[in-house]
Design goal:
It comes from Kribbella qitaiheensis. It is a multi-pass membrane protein. InterPro entries: ABC_transporter_permease, MetI-like, MetI-like_sf. Keywords: Cell membrane, Membrane, Transmembrane, Transmembrane helix, Transport. The protein is mostly helical. The protein folds into 2 domains: about 35 residues; about 230 residues, MetI-like fold. A two-stranded antiparallel ribbon has the order 1-2. A hairpin with a 5-residue loop joins strand 1 and strand 2. Helix 9 packs antiparallel against helix 12. It is globular and about 70 Å long.
Length: about 325
């Protein structure tokens, strides 16, 4: 009797679990949510930055008075800049302010960040005290300092009287007004820049500092070879941001307008204040628009060069 055996059954195919794919509708909703969050900023930039820049570039080719009368003059507004002595004086004041304010504010704010980096009792109050001026309106800041520096009667004049400096007019002397303006600007912005540096210091791994200390590096060597290289992108941001703010920011107009209105003897007349005067004092809107486009172009060029030569602050990276 012949017996037959059934062939062995084939093992069931092993299937790997597949990662569940998000439905297309869910991805679409996430994308719409992202666009919805970005929309207010994008609309604000278009309405309040991009559109005015385009309009200013167009108005620069016209002679416009305060009554809305337009007369096409071509490049006349740009040609006028070459013979405008007050413009060149304002550019000189602005350049002096930038090369003085930016490094002083950088050093002071970085020193404050290193000072309040470590936690100690009351650290929150100390940080808040340094940042407090930045939350006050610049108009209020200007009025306060104007009151403190008023000639012969201000609080600072009274404090300096025993040193024989009680009669010094810090805002009324051409040789002192710009320096006083620089120091007030540093006092106002040092808290903000301090927080930026603190954020950068938080990203410095503590393990690297501890390893350097174990290897025998002193405090200066740890700063020079560990902390500073990792802070270069943050430092670059502070320099670029403070440079743009010094040329076109609120402290370049609001503060100087409240303190001195460009005086004495045009010693504190910044280029932004000069543009304001051309537009709203002399009703020369076309010339003011041309000046604005030139200033913006110069800032874009300088910022681009800084990015190109420093790689965004990463000097040593290949």
């Amino acid at each position: 009797m012949v017996t037959t055996t059934a062939p062995p059954s084939q093992p069931a195919a092993v299937t790997r679990p597949r990662r569940a794919k998000a439905p297309a509708s869910k991805k679409r909703r996430e994308a719409l949510a992202a666009y919805a969050f970005l929309a207010p900023d994008v609309i604000g930039l278009i309405v309040f930055v991009a559109l005015p820049m385009v309009l200013a570039f167009g108005v620069a080719f016209f002679k416009v008075d305060g009554f809305g009368n337009y007369k096409y003059v071509g490049l006349a507004n740009y040609q006028l800049m070459g013979s405008d002595d007050q413009l060149w004086a304002a550019l000189k004041v602005t350049g002096t302010y930038v090369i003085t304010f930016v490094p002083i504010a950088f050093v002071v704010s970085f020193a404050l960040a290193m000072l309040v980096r470590n936690h100690f009792k009351g650290i929150g109050w100390v940080r808040s005290a340094f940042f407090l001026p930045n939350v006050v309106s610049l108009v209020v800041v200007g009025l306060i300092w104007q009151f403190l520096l008023v000639d012969k009667r201000g609080a600072i004049s009274n404090l300096l009287a025993p040193l024989g400096l009680g009669d010094v007019s810090f805002l009324g002397t051409p040789s002192l007004a710009l320096g006083t303006y620089v120091l007030i600007s540093v006092w106002f912005l040092m808290g903000y820049q301090m927080l930026v540096f603190l954020a950068g210091l938080k990203d410095v791994p503590k393990e690297l500092e501890d390893a350097a200390e174990i290897d025998g590096a002193n405090a200066w060597q740890r700063f020079r070879f560990v902390i500073w290289p990792l802070l270069r992108p943050t430092s670059f941001f502070v320099v670029v941001n403070s440079t743009i703010g010094a040329v076109t920011g609120l402290q370049a107009f609001d503060l100087v307008y409240v303190l001195t209105k460009g005086g004495p003897a045009r010693a504190t007349s910044t280029v932004v204040l000069y543009i304001y005067e051309q537009a709203f004092t002399f009703n020369n809107m076309g010339y003011a628009a041309a000046l604005t486009t030139v200033v913006v172009a110069m800032l874009v060029l300088c910022t681009g060069l800084m990015f190109a030569f420093t790689r965004g602050g990463r000097f040593d990276e290949d």
